[in-house]
Amino acid sequence: MKESERESEYQKVPTRELINDNIPEIPLSYGYGIRHVQVALLLLSLTVAYTARAHMGLTVVAMSKTPRNAINNSSGFINERIYNNTVDISDVKEENNNGTNSLESEINGTISKLSKDNETSESIWDVYMTYEWPKSIQELILDSFFLGYFLMMFPMGMVAQRFGGKIPLQVCMLVNGVVSLMTPSVAAWGGWKAVCSCRVIQGLSQAGVYPSIQTVLSKWAPASERGRFASYIYSGSTIGTVIAFQSSGALSSSKAGWPATFWFFGSVCIAAFILLTMFSANSPTEHKNISEEEKTFILGRIDDGIKKRMTIPWKHILTSKHVWGAFAAHVASGVCFVFFLTQTPAYMFYILGFNIKNSGILSSLPYIASIILSVVYGVVSDYCTNRGIVTLKTARIASNSIAQIGPALCLVAVSFTENSTFAVILLVLGVGLLAGVHVGWMLNYIDLSPNFSGSLMALGNTLTSFASLSQPILISNIVTDVKNRFQWRIMMFLMATIIFITNGVFAWFMSTEIQPWDQIDSKETSDTEKNNQ
User: Fold this and answer.
1) Which of 283, 301, 319 is the last residue of a domain?
2) Are residues 279 and 323 in the same domain?
3) 45 with 276: CB under 8 angstroms?
4) Out of 7, 51, 145, 291, which could bridge 244 as a Cys pair, Cβ 3.0 to 4.6 Å?
5) pLDDT tens digit string along 404-416?
6) C-alpha–C-alpha distance, residues 426 and 333, integer Å
7) Which domain holds residue 81?
């Protein structure tokens, strides 16, 4: 071969410099795009899931009529109805104008009126009937959801890890929609046991919501936008709760009756399923309509678009001090949230003589504060880290510390105040500040392991469920007299101490560096290499 031909052939071989020149530059910023659609779909999914979960607290009351044995214990029944804000205490008079005691007749008249109000004409399907379900049965129906939720939490996390988050979210929306639409007929057929079964099924399907959202978020959120995206999405839990509380009462009292609540939220779930099917994707590499510029902005140059099978490195995860630091904050914030929402109102009623249930607006204030502060946390966190004001690690620690130390101080202050108005302010502030965990330990899972953040979330949720189940036992052994202020103070100080310690553990052990074990272990790649050899 001549020298000129050799040079010509040599020039046809692309060099590394030429290859690198063909790779598009990573844009510093990119406007609105497909990733914002995915964030909106994740927000919708979490919101709809919580509406299907939370509305039952009010709907089950509308489904239940006054038990017949309530007349035999009329005084206690009226006290309970007053506490639940269903009877105005001014309607019950101790003495009439003739000087005779009319308390018994007033009680019986009120019970009769409530029973007539609860009873509605039955349709040909009998789905509008009301049931004689005592408080114990109502609580059993409500708790059935969490039985399914707890049992399937870890397995659904593994499903999200293996197949991506889209499929579990689709299953959640479809199952909750179908079950909600069927519940009125199922209740007429099988009573409270059938309703419990429906709630268990809904809990099983919703167990994968948080791990799935975490998995999808880790794929779609670039580092510069991760804080605000997480704050937007996770505010869906409080938005859904507010919508459920406000809508279920109006729907149950409408002409359509309590079945309208199930039909409405079931239809919303089906609509969310359709939107997820049409527009969502597990990652930018799987979306058909995303531009190459936006894909490069999200993924950079580290993703080659090849889908690999990942093996979860359990040994490294369970022996990582950084992971256990995040677990500690996860468990503490979950227990703190449950304590605020379940025990503080009881404290205010028995100790301060103030019933927060008397006002729908007051009941919604903690959730509204949480929604607002969640967005504030996300925007401020991204602003400070993107402009180099603070490091990512400092931002995570600061957000998580405010979100845990703030509510702990509110608990301590509540135990000393005798002013019901100030106690409500502390309650609202405490629940609102907790929203900082969305850009604290929640995002730290993605910091540590973008590939396995869904599995970390599932494992953390499982640990939190164990802790939450043990909380009532602890409270019942400390607060033996609900009217004893000192016992409540001990419980609140104990909660605050646990929160302080776990936040310290998180701050000491946390890291924002991607861990070495996050590297993908592809069995398919290794098998291919063996075959080529």
Assistant:
1) 301
2) no
3) yes
4) 51
5) 999 999 999 988 9
6) 17
7) 68-92+103-118
Q: Are 153 and 204 in contact (CB under 8 A)?
A: no
Q: What angle do CA 406, 246, 125 make, to 5 degrees?
A: 140
Residue 140, pLDDT score: 87
Average the pLDDT over 512-524 and give the result. Answer: 74
* 347/204: higher pLDDT: 204
Let me know whether 73 and 211 are in one domain. no
Share of the chain above pLDDT 90, in %: 39
Identify whether residues 333 and 251 lie together within a single domain.
no
Q: How far apart are CA 62 and CA 130, in angstroms?
A: 8
- Identify which of 375, 51, 462, 45 has the alpha carbon closest to the alpha carbon of residue 216: 45
Token code pair at residue 248: 């279920």
Polymer length in residues for the chain: 533
CA distance to 15, 17, 21, 89, 109, per residue, from 10 (Å) = 10, 15, 19, 96, 101
Q: Are 294 and 202 in contact (CB under 8 A)?
A: no
Residue 15 lies in a domain: no
Q: What is the CA 110 to chain-centroid distance, rounded?
A: 39
Q: Is the model more confident about 83 or about 324?
A: 324
Residues 372 and 501: their CA atoms lie apart, in Å, by 27
Token pair recorded at residue 186: 């199922």
Chain segment 219-262, per-residue pLDDT in tens = 998 888 888 999 999 999 889 988 888 888 888 888 888 999 99
- CA–CA dist 407, 428 (Å, integer): 10
Q: How many domains does the chain have?
A: 3
d(CA 160, CA 169): 9
Structure token digits, residue 40: 């909106």
CA nearest to 492, candidates 422, 423, 402: 423
Q: How far is CA 321 from CA 316, 327, 461, 493, in A?
A: 10, 10, 18, 27
Kindly state the helix (H) or strand (E) to which residue 406 belongs, with its residue range.
Answer: helix 392-414
The pTM assigned to this predicted structure is 0.76
pLDDT tops 80 at residue 97: no
Q: Which residues of 251-285 are buried (b: 16+ CB within 10 A; e: fewer)?
A: bbeeeebbbbbbbbbbebbbebbebbeeebbbbbb
Question: Tokens for 39?
Answer: 């964030």
For 4, counting Cβ atoms within 10 Å of its Cβ (0-12 exposed, 13-18 middle, 19+ buried), the class is exposed
Residue appearing with tokens 């019950």: 92
Would you place residue 308 in the very low, low, confident or very high pLDDT band (cuts 50, 70, 90)?
A: low
209-220 helix and 441-448 helix, angle to the nearest 10 degrees: 60
Residue 253, helix vs strand vs coil: coil
DSSP letter, residue 131: B
Same domain, 331 and 196: no
Structure confidence at residue 474 as a pLDDT band (50, 70, 90): confident
